[in-house]
Amino acid sequence: MRIVFAGTPDFAAIALKAILAAGHTVVGVYSQPDRPAGRGRKLMPSPVKQVALDANIPVLQPQSLKPEEAQQELAALKPDVMIVAAYGLILPKSVLEIPSHGCLNIHASLLPRWRGAAPIQRAIAAGDAETGITIMQMDVGLDTGDMLLKTATPINPDDTGGSLHDRLADMGGDAIVEALAKLNQNTLAGDPQNDDEACYAHKLSKEEGHINWHNSATDIERLIRAFNPWPGTFTDLGEQRIRLHQAQAIEQDSDKAPGTVLRREREGIDIACGTGSLRVSKVQLPGTRALSVNDLINGGKPVLMPEQELN
To answer: Relative to the CA of 195, which of 55, 170, 252, 260 has its CA 20 to 30 Å away?
Structure first.
């Protein structure tokens, strides 16, 4: 089977590695154009492009797949199937129809829940008990195609956006290899999505990371875990912006205004919320690295002191 792979970040690179390790023939790899990165702002290849280069697979990096020339380039590869994972470009209907078996997408949620750009973080923030990987037959809609294969994992109380991303990336690699095996055996069947059960995972923004202390401690704790490591969460103490890296909700109500520091001890800093309190255990002050509350106290800086108000 002649496979074309389209993807860009680490999540997709792990899937490409799994496909190659399973012995499949990848005749071409599509990835986003190189981007400037690092202190020198040099152009750097995406993780997917780097895997392709290491495996001596031709790499194509069009700005768009809408031009006829780009589509002819894809057709010339004579793909049986195109695997798509976090590619970052829209695939027009004419592209979806080029591979004889169409295009299969590796999506990081249990569809139809969390269609869209940020399914991993939205699942944590919403308090979902589980998530997973769906291998989907792509159509012209946004994550609306038939479901071909699903595999689930629980969302643990200490899962962050980072830890869940890494687990789902490995699961995505295993799932697409299983799907390709079934495709080879003509046993891969599609199951339509129920649109009534669908919800949308909006793209993340840095502004969303601004803590609203009027929310419940449980909701704030989930947001901190979901947005770790990116885009991160923060609160303001006067002119200082303090980033919050680790916290847990505790059952401690207070008559203080939400955002008021209640207690400052080495095991954590308790802050009043709309409901309950949040015990913060790792923070980052402006111009410093992330540090534990114990280290913050040892440093002697008078920040996050009792009665101080955050917003």
So the answer is: 170
Residues 6+ apart with CB under 8 A from 261: 269, 270, 271, 304, 305, 306, 307, 308, 309, 310
Rounded Cα gap, residues 54 and 48, in angstroms: 10
How many residues are present in the chain?
Answer: 311
Quick check: 224 and 233 in contact, CB under 8 A?
yes
> From CA 178, how far away is CA 34, in angstroms rounded?
31
Pairing of strands 81-85, 2-7: parallel
Calpha distance 230→225 (Å, rounded): 10
In which order are the strands placed within the sheet that holds 2-7? 59-60, 25-30, 2-7, 81-85, 103-107, 130-137, 147-154
* Secondary structure of residue 221 in the 3-state scheme: helix
For 45, 62, 97, 103, 275, the CA distances from 69, given in Å and listed in that order, are: 23, 10, 16, 19, 57
As a whole number of angstroms, the distance between CA 11 and CA 166 comes to 7
pLDDT tens digits, one per residue of 158-214: 999 999 999 999 999 999 999 999 999 999 999 999 999 999 999 999 999 999 999
Peptide bond into 154 cis (omega under 30): no
